[in-house]
Amino acid sequence: MFESLVENYGVTGLFISAFISSTLAPGGSEAVLVYLLLNGEQSALYLVVVATVGNTLGALTSFYLGTLASSQYPPKNTNSKNFAKANALIQRYGSIALLLSWLPLIGDVLCLAAGWLRLSIIKSLFFITLGKFARYFVISLIIS
């Protein structure tokens, strides 16, 4: 089933998977990227850029949701363990912590916390994109 799904949607499927993987919903964009890299129909750099753009836009969605939530719920009123860790990282390192936004579980929450704390969108976008690109680029180097 996975193969037919990827074959039917190809690069569009990679973008959608990358987007969903970077929101608070689970996803598997790395597996889609690896499949497409092994298929060899598109260049590795093209696939890495598509995955990076989709994943970054998903992270910005979480960032925006955090911004919206901050107007209703101050950050100090959260009880989530992952949010507390992400919040501590953001408080300590600022936007640079978003280099880790690719990490499972805490990465999505980092983006949410960054929006919640109303960090600079430009700095946040830069570090989110850089971290996500680096992850996909390393995967492409390993596979190629």
Tell me what the structure shows:
- This protein has 144 residues and is mainly α.
- The protein has one domain.
- Helix content is 73%, strand content 0%.
- It is built from 6 helices and no strands.
- Helix 1 (2-21) packs across helix 2 (29-39) and helix 3 (44-70) runs antiparallel to helix 6 (121-143).
- The longest helix has 27 residues, at 44-70.
- The chain starts with a helix and ends with a helix.
- The relative contact order is 0.16.
- The mean pLDDT is 87.
Gist of the model:
73% of the residues lie in helices and 0% in strands. It is built from six helices and no strands.
Q: How is the main sheet built?
A: none
Order of helices and strands: HHHHHH
Number of strands: 0
What level of helicity do the residues show?
over 70%
State the secondary-structure class.
mainly alpha
Q: How is the quaternary structure best described?
A: single chain
- Write down the overall geometry: elongated
**Number of helices in the DSSP assignment:** 6
On the 0-100 scale, what is the average pLDDT? Answer: 87
> Distance between the terminal alpha carbons, to the nearest Å?
24 Å
Low-confidence stretches: none
What is the radius of gyration? Answer: 16 Å
Question: Helix and strand layout, with pairings?
Answer:
Blueprint: H1 2-21, H2 29-39, H3 44-70, H4 81-93, H5 106-116, H6 121-143
Helix pairs in contact: 1-2, 1-3, 2-3, 2-6, 3-5, 3-6, 4-5
